[in-house]
Design a protein that fits this description.
2 helices; nine-stranded antiparallel sheet; Immunoglobulin-like; single chain; mainly beta; 2 domains
């Protein structure tokens, strides 16, 4: 990745590996039940900070964020930028001091304001990294005087949240829970952003995780659980909505998948997939500005070019049965590719984490995660009032933090609300150590009643076929002419995905 012209350089983060980024808050030495945290609490915030200042009892916070159209959105508040409606006092006057590249200074004054404690202004002609000084007169906080508060800010890029992928099984059964994972990344690298991670099924909203936080230059996962009561091909979509403080490019905020839902119910049915890939994304954005004021003229430009590469690997297995297996249970998972072991998990004597009873419906579930292998295991057993059932899955999450939608949390963890889990050691300690898949992957799983020996097992082999995808949007420019000058915006991007993927499904006797 490179920044050039008037852009300032920040250190790049390491490329993420899909298999290795399921992370939690504290390091653990063995499988454990993760501690969930409310979405309102950030897992980390490594982005550039807002400008702040104080005079007397009055404080001022501000930021200047450059959008894709070349406009810079300036925000000032006497309170919290994430909650500007609650700002105290009144901003009655704002003086904006801009330092141009040629060393000259430009002043803009906004007087007789009636904006409460929150002021905004769209500014044209600013460049990335441009310094600006803001003085604001604040009334109504100190009872005997007007406070004049000064802050110094530099123009930053507006966050850009991208829905990178939506991972869903190719097939599912009616009334059987299906887990889906969306990976959301912030790509502009200056500041993080909050948003809603929303799942749609056939165009209708199905589930959401509200107010997720994605740190600058980082990725997170949104985990959903869906249950379909009719058969057919379902179109599922994830949308990144309500991005705050704003979204640089709203056209990359959705990802799609399809699921074939069948009504077949058997003793044990399963579906599995595996993938191994390399992807690369490049883009370039440039903006050129020229203006004339009387005998004075000025030009400036800025640009950014980025190059992201990622090696990824994932496996997924899910199964359901119309017979209920009773706790305590033992669970095992063995994953091999061309005779080489690529993943294992063994869990013995698991009791239910929780149990619920609602009329004729009852359910007991357990959830475990092993940071040594990054494998997550879910198992539920119960009755729907007519038939007994069991369902379980093994899954690897790709994001640094994993956000759980309300349906996912309710089904697997018996908890309402929006939560996530995070383990800072899980990705860093294993990065780059996984074994690449060969021509196929065999997944052997078994769940056994610890007291009786009753069991369910499956051993599908997934054949991996080559898979490539990509696009190129050639670099092109659009110019806007104005009375005082011009703005020319240029952009282009490309994406290439090369890997192999396969899936397998079946039933056991």
């Amino acid at each position: 990745m490179s920044f050039y012209r008037s852009h300032y350089l920040r250190a790049a983060g390491s490329a993420s590996v899909a298999l290795l980024l399921a992370c939690f808050a504290t390091a653990q030495t063995g499988p454990y039940r993760p501690t969930l945290k409310p979405n309102s609490q950030k897992y980390q915030d490594n982005g550039l900070k807002n400008a702040t200042g104080r005079s007397g009892a009055a404080s001022l916070t501000g930021r200047a964020l450059l959008a894709q159209d070349g406009k810079t959105f300036l925000e000032l508040t006497t309170g919290d930028l994430d909650n500007p409606a609650a700002a105290p006092g009144k901003i009655s006057k704002v003086q904006l001091k801009l330092l141009r590249k040629n060393g000259t200074t430009v002043y803009d004054n906004y007087t007789n304001l009636e904006v409460g404690g929150y002021f905004t202004q769209n500014l044209g002609g600013l460049f990335l990294g441009q310094p600006l000084q803001v003085q604001a007169s604040v009334r109504g906080i100190d009872p005997t005087r007007t406070d004049v508060v000064t802050i110094n800010e530099k123009v930053k890029l507006l966050p850009d949240l991208v829905a990178e992928s939506l991972r869903a099984p190719d097939a599912a059964h009616v009334n059987t829970p299906v887990n889906l994972e969306a990976v959301v990344r912030e790509t502009n690298r200056d500041m993080g952003a909050r948003a809603d991670c929303v799942l749609y099924v056939d165009g209708a909203e199905w589930d959401r995780s509200s107010g997720i936080w994605v740190d600058a230059d980082d990725s997170v996962s949104c985990a959903f659980t869906a249950t379909f009561d009719t058969a057919g091909t379902k179109r599922v979509e994830v949308r990144v909505a309500n991005v705050k403080p704003g979204d640089y490019n709203p056209n990359n905020n959705s990802a799609f998948a399809t699921i074939g839902v069948t009504s077949e119910q058997v003793k044990l049915s399963y579906w599995a997939n595996a993938s191994d890939y390399t992807s690369r994304y490049t883009d370039r954005y440039d903006s050129f500005y020229g203006s004339t004021y009387g005998t004075y003229s000025e030009t400036n430009d800025w640009g950014v070019a980025r190059d992201f590469s990622e090696d990824g690997q994932s496996t997924y297995f899910e199964a359901s049965s119309r017979e209920a297996l009773t706790f305590p249970i033992n669970a095992s998972y063995l994953e091999t590719s061309d005779g080489v072991t690529t993943g294992t998990l063994d869990l013995d004597g698991l009791d239910a984490d929780w149990a619920s009873q609602n009329g004729d419906f009852s359910q007991s579930c357990v959830w475990r995660y092993d940071p040594a292998t990054n494998i997550s295991f879910n198992f539920c057993s119960g009755t729907d009032g007519y038939d007994a059932y069991s369902s379980f899955n093994y899954q690897r999450f790709a994001g640094r933090a994993v956000y759980f939608s309300s349906s996912y949390s309710q089904y697997w963890n018996n908890s309402g609300g929006d939560y996530y889990f995070y383990d800072s050691s899980a990705s860093g300690s294993d990065a780059g150590t996984y074994t690449r898949f060969g021509n196929g992957v065999t997944i052997a799983v078994q769940v056994t009643e610890a007291l009786t020996g009753r069991f369910a097992k499956a051993e599908p082999t997934v054949t991996l076929d080559p898979l490539s995808d990509g696009y190129t949007n050639p670099y092109s420019c659009t110019e806007f002419l104005m009375s005082y000058g011009f703005v020319r915006s240029c952009s282009g991007d490309s994406y290439q995905y090369d890997g192999k993927y396969g899936s397998a499904e079946g039933v056991t006797p």
